[in-house]
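Q: Given only this backbone (462 positions), what sequence would you predict?
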């Protein structure tokens, strides 16, 4: 049985591959578990299944063990779910067994029943199940955690396991692959980011607590620690300044105040000290309280310096710096700032901000056209990283009329397509990809796969 992305393969002249330079890169069978934004339901997706209808996907709530057995009870209720196939998000009802047979799978010597079973009938699919993820799992996460909560196994018609994946963390993914990625600059890597990283509420229940404000102000379900634990290495931070409050600096989404900045800074600091991972802390907007002078900006930089000074990366090499140079000094937080005057004024503390690519698109076809690598020409002569802001953007009127039903709903409709675009087409050209409700994507798996491919190609070209 093969865990997802345990190996990296480059084939010459292979079928089912895409070209990259002088090499052909295999597009392997990929199986993923994600979590929907709206209801926190477990989602199962798969790509590049070469023999659809010849096997089953078995979902379990513990690490599965062989043997896998197919049983036919006399009375079993089938499990309906929705399968999304088109970029207009059209759906049709689909059942766990496409042949309308009453089939139940068990696994292990104790014949424990699977919690969900899918019989694929297409090479690729994305299914939202009726299994709700319990957020209490997050309270037990540690840097050493890998798989937890749920596993998915594809078995063939002979009940042999082919591939297994799981809901998992990536708390130390950079260190785990240090020997392979240490010679890269940030511009060379595929890095997962979160859009408006501080826009979340602790213990928020979207089915009970949602209002018109939270529908469009919250962009993440997880706090900063959980984001970092699951592989996020690019934090998109917007800061508001409130002179009359204590604390004065807050992480905002527009004019909506979300988290005390001091809390976010300390969560990042604690994570980096524990894991030795490298994090980009990119201060991008200043929506409240900064005015036209530089005084509040200077105050903000000194505020951040006071909390993170011993961990801030020296910007003297700029974005040309390689990961191995950062690890040598064990100063692992890059403070980037979207104000060139401040960058010039604090050259020993502040990097120039990441270039964010905003399409401001209201539909998927427009977003795909904007994110296409054909729009990357501006990056060819720069080592400065760029971030694809891979989410749909509502207009003011869309928000006031609640046309979209909230960002969670639109993320559930778009994240599956965004995931597929990068997995199928753009995984070798992407740099930073920042999304809403990142747990609804499998982009972290694609990022790991891309970075290992890039290292292998680099070594083959020598």
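A: Predicted residues:
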């Amino acid at each position: 049985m093969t865990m997802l992305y345990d190996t990296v393969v480059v084939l010459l002249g292979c079928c089912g591959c895409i070209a990259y330079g002088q090499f052909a890169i295999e597009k392997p069978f990929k199986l993923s578990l994600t979590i929907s934004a709206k209801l926190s339901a477990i989602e199962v997706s798969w790509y590049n299944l070469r023999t659809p209808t010849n096997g089953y996907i078995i979902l379990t709530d513990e690490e599965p063990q062989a043997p896998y057995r197919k049983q036919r009870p006399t009375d079993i209720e089938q499990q309906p779910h929705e399968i999304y196939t088109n970029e207009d998000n059209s759906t049709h009802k689909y059942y766990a067994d496409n042949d309308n047979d009453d089939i139940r799978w068990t696994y292990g010597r104790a014949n424990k029943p699977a919690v969900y079973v899918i019989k694929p009938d297409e090479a690729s699919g994305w299914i939202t199940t009726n299994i709700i993820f319990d957020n209490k799992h997050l309270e037990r996460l540690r840097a050493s955690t890998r798989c937890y909560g749920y596993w998915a196994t594809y078995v063939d018609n002979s009940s042999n396991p082919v591939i297994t994946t799981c809901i998992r963390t990536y708390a130390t993914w950079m260190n785990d692959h240090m020997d392979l990625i240490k010679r890269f600059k940030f511009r060379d890597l595929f890095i997962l980011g979160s859009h408006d990283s501080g826009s979340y509420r602790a213990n928020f229940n979207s089915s009970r607590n949602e209002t018109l404000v939270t529908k469009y102000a919250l962009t993440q379900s997880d706090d900063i620690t959980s984001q970092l634990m699951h592989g996020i290495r690019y934090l998109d931070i917007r800061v508001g300044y409130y002179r009359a409050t204590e604390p004065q600096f807050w992480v905002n989404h527009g004019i909506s105040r979300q988290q005390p900045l001091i809390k976010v800074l300390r969560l990042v600091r604690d994570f980096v000290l524990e894991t030795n991972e490298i994090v980009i802390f990119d201060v991008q907007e200043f929506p409240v309280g900064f005015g036209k002078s530089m005084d509040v900006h200077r105050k903000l930089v000194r505020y951040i310096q006071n909390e993170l000074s011993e961990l801030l990366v020296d910007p003297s090499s700029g974005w040309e710096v390689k990961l191995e140079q950062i690890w040598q000094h064990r100063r692992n937080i890059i403070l980037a700032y979207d104000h060139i005057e401040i960058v010039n004024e604090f050259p020993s503390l502040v990097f120039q901000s990441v270039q964010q690519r905003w399409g401001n698109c209201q539909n998927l076809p427009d977003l795909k056209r904007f994110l296409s690598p054909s729009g990357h020409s501006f990056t060819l002569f720069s080592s400065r990283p760029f971030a694809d802001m891979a989410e749909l953007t509502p207009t003011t009127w869309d928000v006031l009329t609640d046309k979209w039903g909230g960002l969670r709903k639109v993320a559930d409709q778009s994240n599956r397509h965004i995931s597929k675009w990068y997995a199928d087409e753009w995984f070798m050209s992407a740099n930073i990809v920042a999304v809403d409700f990142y747990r609804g994507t499998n982009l972290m798996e694609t990022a790991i796969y891309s970075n290992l491919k890039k290292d292998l190609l680099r070594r083959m070209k020598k």
